[in-house]
Input
Amino acid sequence: MAVEEQRGSVHGAIARFFQFEAQNTNWRAEVTGGVTTFVTMAYIAAVNPGILSGAMGKDLFGELVFATCASAAIATLLMGLLANYPFALAPGMGLNAFFTYTIVLGTGVPWQLALGCVLASGLLFLLLTVLRVREAIITAVPQSLKRATTVGIGLFIAFIGLKNAGFIVDNPATLVDLGDVRTGPIGLAMVGILGMGVMLARGIRGAILLGVLGVTMLGMVTGLTPWPAGIISLPIWPTHLFGEAIYNLPLAFHPAVIELVFAFLFVDLFDTMGTLVGLSERVKFLDARGQLPRANRALLSDSVGTVCGSVLGTSTVTTYIESATGISSGARTGLASVVTSGLFLGALFFTPLVQAIPSFATAPALIVVGVLMIAPVAQIAWDDVSDAVPAFLTLIAMPLTFSIADGLALGFVAYPIIKRLSKKGDEVHPIMDVLAVIFIAKYVFMS
Output
């Protein structure tokens, strides 16, 4: 009896810490949401090392797995404990490609120095966060663009899901085309989409997670994806990566490479902002004024994650749009992030199992969540062209440019210009004017 009472008191204390009652949630929803988010973004444990090893060397793949999972675990844990949000973080897709193909392979900058640039940008993130500059920027964004960001991210992740499943393929003549729908992976992805849709319609908890696991099992049984090569593998400490960013930090501020620091800073600032706003709008975390409570704590988690990640040996850490899958499964508090964080640490020991989940199994989750995130499109003031045009540019550009930051850029430039020329300048926050100028300068002088 004493043990049961103690267990109950611990559970109660945790529930109070994460404010279960205020968020109308429970243990099952939070754990399921945390697991779902992890399963949906577990691909990063293999994909990020694969991309970065192209710049650092294939022999460092194992060390990069450690850096990837450890940095994701640290940043996501901070998000859960400090900000109490069910948002997961990890080395950002796009930013890792920028690190490898643009900076290291494209300009010839040594990867050690590139890590120093990532650390420098992370420290600048941290400074801007402490000074509350990043939070002020989020507050200044109008509701129409926040809602458009949610819809744009929904379209973006659905597009990623369609691409990963093979529904969409490239075509030199038309840019995109329909893939061969007769293939097994596309067939199983469609089974996953339909299965998740039915389970969600019937109110089954953890529908997305069940769909991912079900498609994975079907893939293994039918031979479309291999069974795990093993169960347990020992983590590989990043001996050759750890501390290289610190050693090269002074060189990152050299005039010849300082532009790279600001490039990392610029992309991550608006990528993170777009993701936070989009996810928060989707789950109604924004207050009556359209502001995100505890935004500075969330941004602090992101900043510290980038600093820790660079020291461990990986590119910029950012908030992941795949967190939407966990939110759609019921996650509402930071406990889900704690669960996701723990699973990233566990992934260090079970890498073969994590790598066994095929992209056509996670693709249906991204597509279905994309559908769920489009709802705010109805709340955009389409009858006001000064709101409608910037909003449309934002939501359509994200999937078509394959970039949240670029979608935001178009909207942020268009909004103040159209508003002021339409004699509605009183609706524009001065920060929006500053951001428009920065974006224009960025694309004119840095692209």
Notes: DSSP finds 20 helices and four strands in the chain. The chain has a mean pLDDT of 86. The two ends are 66 Å apart (CA to CA). Residues 28-232+240-445 form one domain.
